User: Fold these one by one.
Assistant:
Number 1:
Amino acid sequence: MSLLLVALALVAAPPPPSRMQPPGHIAVETRCEACHSPAGWTPVSFDHSRTGFPLEGRHVSASCRACHGSSTDFRAPVPTSCGACHQDVHTGEFGNRCASCHDPSSWATQFGPDAHRFTNFPLTGRHAAIPCEECHQNQRDRRFTRAAADCFACHQTDYARTAGTSLDHARAGFGIDCKSCHFPTRFKGARFAGHDACFQLSAGPHAGIGCLDCHTTLTSFATPGTCSTNTADCMRCHACSHETQTHARVAGFQCSNRKCYECHTFTPATGLRPPAARVNR
Amino acid sequence: MSATPRIAGALLAAGLVAGAGARGEARSQGRVGSVLYATTTRLYLDAGSRDGLAPGQVLHFQRSGSCRVEQVSETRATCLGAGGAGVTFPLPEPPPPRPVVRLPPPTRPAVLEQRRSVLASASYPHVDYREAAGGGLEARRGSIDAGIGHTTWWVSGGRGAWNQERADAGIRGASLGAGFTLDLDLSARRWSRRSDPISFRPDDPTQLYVWEASISRRSGDGGPAFSIGRVRPYRVPGQVILDGAQAGWRLEGGSEAGVFGGAVPNSVTLAPSFDHGTLGAYWIGQRVFEADSTVRFLRHEARIAFVNTDDLGKRVEGEALLEARITRRLDAAVNVRAGAGAAHGLGSLDTIRLDAVRLDLTARPFDSLSLSGSFRHEGGSVPELDGPGHLLLGGEARHADASAAWVPIEALRFSVLSGLSTDLVTQKTRRWIGPEVALTRLFGDRGGVSLGYFQEDGWAPGRSAWFQVLARSQGVLQILARVSWFQTSQIAPVDLDELGVSTSIQAQLGPRVAFRLSAMARTVLNGQRSLFGPATGQVMLADAELAGTF
């Protein structure tokens, strides 16, 4: 009987004082010291990493209510996706995975030229060091969906800029596949694949010279690929005083471009060496 | 026991008693303290503040020598000096005894119980947790971000570096009183040096961009909600900024419906333009479910609008977004936009086209394994109107990616990443896949390293590899350094090798001010073997920013 009375008393007894709910906090134990300190109710210190959403970067200084709203029940679920709290300035283009480009320390983008490689247009050469707006011009929507992977789409004006010059691309019949001749670092220093068949530039004494160093007239590319333009400006680099001296024993030598070709006809086999019979020994 | 030791013991006891009696007599008459323990420099005394000792006091031993009192408790003290255990010294006059205060009798239990019940039932506001209008998931204190920065782009053989200075400012949700808030987002930029060819606004060395300058009122308790000014419409999917207003009615819990309308600024300069505009309606819904429910979080937003912009012309657009968290293992989001041209008015719409379909999935089948993937179809709705050479670029494109990350132990992560991007206009496609290994806590809390490799395929095939080090001093400094190698084929007359280094430094200069420096440099071999030969090229990009948050 006494046991029964004790059991009834235990059941009917009010909860111990330590289980009481503090005003303003719902369903939370009264271990105030877990978050608060005797210095005052603020600042609040709480190990948020135990919740599965560690507070990093700017989230550290965010007020509790910024995420938990007006609810005082901190155990109530809070959405962890970025879009639940942050408005998307990219109008949805990149979905809800903000962390691909941003980190919690600031909205400054972590997306750089290296990361751009994982798009349809790897930023090679100079493309890695130009402002984004040079290609992605839209500022209003902060979108980057301009799928212009074709060189000519951006460089049409550069192609057109050659009109009327000795490198008139259209007149010379050059195609619009820029990368077949040009490197992505700069336009100068192009490599014309068929040039070696007429005049070796990929190696030898003329390696590395620019197109404009020799091709100085509009007719330079009248018949491209035929090796018969005969318009290279040899004398621009080869000084007559020096060449006259070194060709003193060459019969019929004249210091003019056209005369150079009569002897210095390039072949892959002989290079630029003139026929021995033409030299007076 | 023999008689001799017994007698000796009795004498010793008598001696001790006599000694003690003599010392007690001395304490009562002359008062003497003694050294309990001694080290080479410090003595530990059997007297303290009750006996009149105080720090700095010099005690003179009764035979010879002295020490200076260092620290004092009530009954013990330390003294700096030389001496041995047992050395005695005269004590100063003790302080007068404190008056005895008689405490009141204990409070009766009935009174204590009454006080406890009053305290328990009392309501009191917490300092930082007072309920306020405007609460809700988006409730926040206003913040001000401001920063100044400088960026340099440089390429070897070019006409000199490009330099830009900028000042950025942002105000987010600053309270204006009566529930009104101010939002501001702007950037002023000045090109101090640029050289031809310039594609983007070549005639404007000074540029100002204002993305947001609006006054809003949006209460978490529901009721009318509106924004006016240069508005970035609140949670209206796909809606561009506008000079006008958004007005709606908000339900308790965050759901909202309303209308918006105004002029649409120029897409390149953001200059106000009354030639273009938009008018539409929107719906916002967001709900958080119980922690043990299958669907934990659901967000759904929709928009239908008539738009007339400089890049797209007149159109009717509809867009919907749905985001869900299903258990704690799966996050999913889908976004669909469709539109039809309305060049000749709403009565003669063109065929409806799918402007965008976006799907994002992230699954965590185990705590140590994460799988994610996305698919995007971008229709022809985002052409570049004022692109290089004033061409109409862009067009339909598709992108997809998939990745898996396994974290067998806390400090180790294996990842496989892959992706695919296709330009449907030119039919150019690139694909990439590769592993990454990260020792995320190689330096403990100070950082880690990662190493990765990618094999790439498509119109510009190639491969790339990198090694990255991340070091940080928690909350003060973070340094990221990476060495990269890229090889790309079919993008130049020869296979292109590039070697690059990049670094990013973030230093917290104070509780509100941070400095950031990012730099990237590459050498492009252009088919050469030397890193810096005459036919190679070098590029560099550096950005420095001083930013504050207030």
Note: Chain B touches chain A through 146 residues (CB under 8 Å).
Number 2:
Amino acid sequence: MGNYESVIGLEIHAELKTESKIFCSSSARFGGEPNAHICPVCLGLPGVLPVLNKKVVEYAIRAALALNCEIARFCKFDRKNYYYPDLPKNYQISQYDLPLAQHGFLEIDTENGRKRIGITRIHMEEDAGKLVHQGTVTTTPYSLVDYNRTGVPLLEIVSEPDMRSPEEARAYAEKLRSIIQFTGISDCKMEEGSLRVDANVSVRPLGSKEFGVKTEIKNVNSFRALQRALAYEIERQIAVLEEGGEIVQETRTWDEGNGATLTLRSKEEAHDYRYFPEPDLPPLVITREWVEEIRRGLPELPDARRERYMSEYGLPAYDAAVLTITREIGDYFEACVRLYPHPKTVSNWVMGELARLLNATNTEITDSPVKPEQVAALLKLIDEGVISGKIAKTVFEEMFRTGKDPQLVVKEQGLVQITDEAELKAVVDEIIAANPKVVADYRQGKDKALGFLVGQVMKATKGKANPALVNRLLKEGMKT
Amino acid sequence: MELCYMPAHELSRLLRERKVSAIELTDAVFSRIDAVEDKVKAYLLLLREEARSQARAVDAALAAKEELPPLAGIPLAVKDNLCMAGVETTCASKILKGFIPPYDATVIERLKEQRVVFTGKTNMDEFAMGSSTENSGFYPTANPWDLERVPGGSSGGSAAAVAAGEAVAALGSDTGGSIRQPAAFCGVVGMKPTYGLVSRYGLVAFASSLDQIGPITRDVRDCALVLNAIAGHDPRDSTSAPQDVPDYTEFLVPDIKGFRIGIPREYIAEGTAPAVRDVLAEAVHLLTSMGAMVEETSLPHVRYSLPTYYLIAPAEASSNLARYDGVRYGLRVEGEDVVAMYKKTRNRGFGPEVKRRIMLGTYALSAGYYDAYYLKALKVRTLIRRDFDAAFERFDLILSPTTPTPAFKMGEKVDDPLAMYLSDICTLAVNLAGLPGLSIPGGFAGNLPVGIQLIGPPFTEGRLLRVAYAFEREAGVAAKRPALEGGQNG
């Protein structure tokens, strides 16, 4: 970067998970057979009219409140005109000059502490369908159109150009996803397209107050890709300027395979969308009573929950942050703590073993084969001395694989800890007899020797020996 | 009187008294169609078999002494921009040839509940853009009063069908005069209701903020009956007014004493034909003699109606008609890529007037021109509405000619769009202001009918119908029948 500073703003589209579409009663669910979730209205057949789904407005207000926005008392829909085969009316019903909400913000954590990122506006619009090409877009002999997604409600959330690095941009996007996801209005899955991120980026000499010429980057399909694409684009822009060149205002696409951004279209090719007020929908009046009612129904948001995890449960900041990335992780954690009130132990297990196995099997926490009550039961078995912490990990893996209760796994696999002193004493004596040199080392004060002998006992008992008891018996057995 | 020339309310009585059967009535109308349709060409599509089976079902219900709605068994024609499930709907455009909607327009659904007999889909100017039905993508319709003349438009087919006895009543749509102007040219009654009174669901959109569906009928009572059937809130149209509608026939009392009627001087301008002025003067005389108070007034901004309308309507149309692209239904002309397909399809599918308006509208909405054209037009539209608001503080309703001239000759204005646009000069402002407008036969210029227009405040259709009903009884204009002569076919 050297003498340059980057300026980044993000435009994020989130699909709302309402039952029906924004302007008709067709299902808004993801997937399904092609063209199964359609009707004359979302197909834009001649003569049909849109009717606004009130739930969409409610969800949008929920998001806007969670993002600290001012909600308009009066807003309207507009038509954005452009031709594309996945857009059946060849215009998109969106909001132009009077959006639902404006002037919001969220906070991210940076190296230099908390930073507030402004949110310019939030508006509602309808999604387009999906083209299915035979091969690539340029070589396909024909294309198929799936209109299932047509008319699925979208929120467009536009940030201020407040981010100064790809890391900040990623932190903003991830935080936004957390907040939206907490409000329960969207799944925010980038891989299913229910969260889409476009980035505007420019660079300028450090200390400059004016913005440089920006480019827009599309087609980033993960948070990691967002960060990489921005890092690449910033370097590219700086290189152009360093060589005495000029940045061209254009839209670029992120090529994940080659790790580079490529020109998609220039400013000259940009559409004139010919926005005008949608005459089929009357302006939308939003009463303060309705807004307050929605505000009262807002769930606890990530920042508040994180604070609570630190103050109420005494968790370290890192744990609290990880456990509040999604509402579901936090809910899982709290369900465990309710049954087993040792928050840090639960946090270790949720962030450790559980997260590892969920990642490895690409499973959502809500679909976890191990339920919170089973986690609590397992942790109680450790406390009761039935199994050791080490064996517990083996038990947990089996629970995750089969969904069985920990007691059953322990029983089936004979993993109950050996706490019988006489039984263990025999093993300990054998180990002492078999390792005279190590025993001599121990007696000369080499503490490490004890660890080795404990390991030998554990090995002989297949890990089932109660570690505290083994320690005591070894020490007693080696007393001179 | 021949069955096909009787008004619906009389036929309804005859049906109920079993003096005529629905099938007799339907057959009478289709005999009339067989006799005159090759001269008039009011229809794009006839629904003969469907109509006969609907009529037989009504007869069966009558025989079973079922309680039937007032319009049961009445042969009614539908403008071809109204969707009827399973019936080709083209808007008289080649681009929609073959399009069969899978759903009914709300008005069709409501008329089906009335057990109306649908005769067919009527000709129109393509996508309702025009004032003579000469812009039909298929063929023009003739005026039954003089076959060399136009029936008006865009609902020319519907008005001609009612005038020629090819239907007892019809539905039209009116964006800038498309019901009232052809009703005037064809000597029938035509109403554009208040914006929002009748659901637009299923009406193929031309200009969404101006379009309204309305009745074209033989007399004022029939107009009230059809309006009763089609008016009222529809949750599928967000612009439909959420209010109850009265029984409009209850307004039909022949008493207009004390009604204050204003005549805006802007509506009797240079282009107004002397015969039209005469008809209006006679109407004023008659209304005064009936106890109404008629005074001249002014609507200063209505002189901007034409430019205002020709910015707003094409702007909306340019967007509404974007969906006809060859991807999903109707005409497709293949091209080397999708953009070429769009261009070829739209080039071949749309006629010249439609293209002209798409270009006008696209231009008016373009970056850099929006404020000067579209936005300015919206502001003038507000001023026009305020003019009417002010006038209605002094008057119960406004009276004007429906058109500046009687029906003009075919071909007379096809090469002069502006002259064609001027034939709607008296009707445009009503759509811009969202008001109800009613055209009724006022008299004749030679053998050509001349219409007069009544305009009221929003949702005063009852008031307009009352004055029109009283006038109709006294004037006795409706008794005359078209000769179906003249022109090369005559």
Note: The first helix of chain B runs from residue 8 to 16.
Number 3:
Amino acid sequence: MNFELDEIVIEERCRQSALAARVISRAPAAVPVNFIADARDAIRRTASAADPFGAGKRRMAVMHRRAPFLMACPAGSSEFACCGYLVLVLASNCPMDCSYCFLQEYLADNPGVQVYANYADAFDELERARRRTPGRALRVGTGELADSLAFDRMTGISRDLVEFCAPRDRLLLELKTKTDEIDDLLTVDSRGRTLVSWTLSPPHVFLSSEKGTASPAARLAAASRVLEAGYKVGFHLDPVIAYPGAERDYLALLDDLFDTISPARIAFISLGGLRMTPALRSAARRRHPHDPLLCGEEVLAPDGRYRTFTPLRAALLRSLERRIAAASPAVMRYLCMEPPSIHRRVLGQTPPPAAALGRALAER
Amino acid sequence: MSDEHIAKSVRAWAEPRHLDRAHLERWLALDAYSAAAILDAAARLRLRVGQLQGALEMLEEIALVDKTQVSAVLARAPLKRILEGIGPAPARARAFVDELRAMRFPRLGRVLEQMKAEVAALKLPRTVAVALPKDLGSDELRIEIRVRSSTDFRDSLRALEEKADAVERILDLLGGGN
């Protein structure tokens, strides 16, 4: 994918790293590369910029990660029916600019793109996590604070990660993306231990709210290719945005999906309604003032987030769930960041404990 | 009226009322017709600052979704009727904000009206109150029984039991059932 950078900064201690060498060799010639003692200053928001978050996306820092790489999903909460997802933070922020993206709030203070030269330390953490949980399958993803594949053409990290996970049982790596940057993956044998997942939205949402991403058709085509190369695939219909005509469009999207990929070959599909904290909503509206999809019939829900009012949201999610179930009851469906009562209304059952759901997803 | 005159008039309205800078800037960023139309509405209805803030936000959002200008939204019949109507300004101001809300949340408005009608149709005794979640933001129905005697208590339970099917229907509607 093409994205524009104003500058690449490399932390001095990472100057000799393999990642720095890769990034420098693959960066466009016009992008200045500077070396800096501590890149944490470079990733902070530039208060004087008209759009500090947007400016941050155009500045990449190759740096040493000082915190653990492996963490629980930041969306996890006892309020919701959770899937037990573990997050591997190999990068932070994203060159694409979806108007509803939670990173606009989560990374508001440190919006500079971060890629970590010491990412091999993440593999040690993963190995320790595996040894601490004998007999338990783990599902770990790199697509929570960044798009898993958006920077891959420059960093090549995903290839290393797939190769690390390939011989290790009880470990499912999930690469979540809105791109079609899969070429590197096609040259690696994942041995079925990597799943590539795509967020899917109807064309109306893609055009209005998903700037810089691959089109829905391109995402499906990429999914088809990785499937043939031995990877597993999954899909996230998240956020589901309840604009007038949404049900028709999302059902058509599912039809396109099942026409492209046999439901029997899909590991899981997750569903989640649009949800935004007041701060995120404010930031999103300020940065994307012309996106009408940010002005839907969202109201303040008990969890303090703006969500589509409940009857409309539940009806829409249920309609999508029924279409998926009709295509193949074997496709695993789950909800993201929805309360247990919505889980019961949409999926017709009490949500399982996060550990159980996490295990089931990891074993797909 | 020139753009400069309109801006001056907007500031003249905003400053003594301590309208916050963010809303003032949004108002001034509108096209001149729209800024003037809001000023006119504020004057006719004697809008309070809070009402103007809410109205401005809703007007902008309605205009964005409907791909039109704020001035065109304000020219719509239901709002025009209120603006040009007679009667105490505070009541008209409330009606104005309510109408804007109905335009901003059309589907929510329809579903809420339907559900309120279903609750009213329960005709439960005064000892039993049924409350829908605010703005249908959750699927929780709150049922409150207030009694001071065992007779009232048993009567309340009996009334609820008789209406159990209807209450279940409301619960179903809350969850998006038809």
Note: The two ends of chain A are 29 Å apart (CA to CA).
Number 4:
Amino acid sequence: MQLSKSTSSEKEKKLGLGVIFKSKMAAILIATAAIWVLFTFLTDGNFLTTRNLSNLFRQMSITGVLAIGMVFVIILGEIDLSAGSTLGLLGGIAAILNVWFGFSAIPTVVITLILGVIMGAWNGYWIAFRNVPSFIVTLASMLVFRGVLIGITGGNTVAPLTADFKAIGQAYLPTVVGYILVVIAIVGSAYLILGNRKNKIKYNIEVRPMALDVLTIVGIGVISLVLVLILNDYQGFPIPVFIMLLLALILAFVGTKTIFGRRIYGIGGNRDAARLSGINVKKHIIVIYSVLGLLCAVAGILLTSRLNAGSVSAGQNAEMDAIASCVIGGASLAGGSGTVAGALVGALVMASIDNGMSMMNTPTFWQYIVKGLILLIAVWMDISSKNKK
Amino acid sequence: MSEYILEMRDIVKEFFGVKALDGVTLKVKKGEIHALCGENGAGKSTLMKVLSGEHPAGSYSGKIIFEGKELSQTSIKDSESVGIAIIHQELALIKQLSIAENIFLGNEIGARGLVNFSEQLNKTNELLNRVKLNVNPLTRAGDLGIGHQQLVEIAKALSKNAKLLILDEPSASLSEGEVEVLMGILDDLRRDGVTCIYISHKLNEVTRICDNVTVIRDGSTIGQVPISEIDQDKLVQMMVGREMKNLFPREEHKIGEEFFEIKNFNVLDPFNKNIKRVKNASFTLRRGEILGISGLVGSGRTEMVASIYGSFQGQKSGEIYFEGKKIDIKNPNDALSKGIAMVPEDRKKDGIIAGMSVAKNMTMSNLVKYKRPLNVIDKDKEMMDVLKFIDEIKIKTASTELAIKNLSGGNQQKVILAKNLLAEPKILILDEPTRGIDVGAKYEIYKLIFKLAKQGISIIMVSSELPEVLGISDRVLVMNEGEIKASLENNGLTQEMIMNYSVGKKNEEVSESYSEETKTSVGGI
């Protein structure tokens, strides 16, 4: 809101490349596109086949689900190093329930999700009520959960799963559902973006150029349509991708629209000030860790289902990919900033590198090196662009 | 050589096209204490950053001549090497290190990578003597009070053979007693030939200790005058560019019945349960009353009010009665829901969420007010409140969406005040509400305090500045070492009377000497 005495006419920034590039999101998306173009060349176009892209999104869904929970932990100014082990253990438990105990998919999923919440709350309890730094608590959990997994499986791979359980990670939505999703995406984004714009104008706050808003809606429409066309061209919308997007939508809503979300940003920005503002900081920490635990359970179920097995090493280093995704997506480990959308795009970057390099038959060690360097450069670029301001 | 040790001529410094300094000239004589005054945002700090090398040569235009030579310093180290040292408002000691290690940090005495500790300790003792600080040089800096830390900073500057010492708001967080010590030391330094630039909002200190004063406003020099030719009113006028007859815009307000009481309040130190921060404190509060709480730093004022608000981490015992009912306040949320709000002492640490917008900071404690189904925030309603307060208490901000850290201290404080007013409190606790705030913003905050009192809101104001306590309060509680020593109606009350109680003079002595001048009820209610 400009407080100078000006007329209450609409205030628009001029549309220019500067405005577009200022948006962090746009910068990451452009970088992702660049990575895709590069891989397309290096793989003689194989990277861009509908089959590969469908696989890419399905692979991404596990890191993506972790990242959209991790980003809230990071916004709080905390960290979770145990996410990979939690995912592994919960995936293992799901496999054991399904294979050894013969539970069908639904009770297996329900029990796993409940255990996920409990394991997350366990971390949260030690951090919030026992004041142990989250780095230590979750480092301990990382070891403990991995140990439990090895213990209960006796080091064995638990397989094969029942068909209904396998479907969660491997099946596709019918093609028509994909088109319905596109319509929902366009109508929903138009409603939100234009509504937001109307509000800003009402309170005389500077708004982005109308053209940019329209462009965003059109962009969302085109991207989601292309996405669905690609996925439908192969076999349809993969269920894991659908679950990831659904969860991301819910969490993005919580993060940007609700009182709870606002408070999370407040606590991450300045914990003392938040406490003095009457916010129950401990409660929020427990809830956020429980949510991440729940998402670890979802990711664990997806992974076990996709692999058709519960394995001892499942989810190893997954927390690192998730943290890297959040940071590439603009979250700061100092707390107070980060977005669900950013975390999701970060996960897409990580998955693209994994997928592209595997297609090129590059040895795995290169994937680690490249992912590490990309993380470093992404954060460096973010910091240096901030310093220039 | 001229009589000036330092001449800064026509300094212009721009930040992205905005001129923070627009041709400032500053001339400081050798061996004097030179005051630099101006409202927050006038450019004092920027000017000193230019001088100390934090803004390197080339990033500004103009000339700096120090001891006859033109400076072209490119770093803080460069400035230090010619003898210019700055002591920042926010102390930069490393809490975990000892005094000696802090003083010689970066300039360790020793050879071949090894530190000569005994030599360092000797030197530290010498330096501590010079600043009259009688403590073990091995004491951890974090264990010292703020006043002592300040003295260590001065010792550190002296260790670098500083010829020109810049003190940025050195007394902002000192108690009156500590200020006395500081004044004495500055006097000694002047005798030793050390030149000082003294930046302060506290005009009584400026007029007391300084030789000359330079006033800057909006990035330009308004004038340079000998202290002997100016008084505080004149100085304020130069600083704000308008006449301000009365620093305290006192307004009559009706004081109602007693409705709040604390009884036998005891508060323990959060880290050491053997230390009582507040001892057996009891007091009452009337509707629409402005209750000042005075006392030296460490007298338990902050601990008492923070415990009432439920934000102090130490254990507490005692009873609180509110509108006839006994209430229990376990955390700030309990207090807020009862109608007790607090503006904390340390704005940066406990008040603002630096990276968040002005609007979000303002509504942070009252989000439930805008609750819609699904826990969604009603942004329309929120924005209406934000705009209302920006207008009502004149918060200067370019936008509601601007991060609060970009606002001046005074405007940040107003946002925090607005946040607490949004809670529609019946009792508003203000802990050092005007610390580090310029004169203009202070005046507006005082006006607001009286306006609230008129509306029947009771104010509890903790303040280290006696003129403020006297200028604002209806009644004053004086604390000393955790106890409430006196409750004094503010008519005919003087600074000396409050000081006597705050330094813990025996009650009889005090009441004997003042009993005729004021109603004095000693020892609580």
Note: Chain A touches chain B at residues 1-3, 199, 202-203, 205-206, 257-260, 262-263, 265-266, 269-270, 272-280, 336-337 (CB under 8 Å).
